[in-house]
Amino acid sequence: MRQSLREKIIKICEQKIDKKGEGVGLSFYAFFANKNDDPDVLMEAATWWIQTHQLDHFEKALKVKEMVKSGL
What we know:
By secondary structure, the protein is mainly alpha-helical. The chain has 3 helices and 2 strands, in the order αβαβα.
């Protein structure tokens, strides 16, 4: 996964956790605007989320953040 996407995911997860607590969940769509303005990056995130790690539609932001930080 490209570094810019990793940084974006970590930032969004941290914002969600700060706002709603460590139990907050999210989907990979949380990292994108409602407009599909960058389909390549969207597919990269979807592939990482769905195919590579077989995550559920909603996962804990803390779990996703730690996975991305650890390089998974």
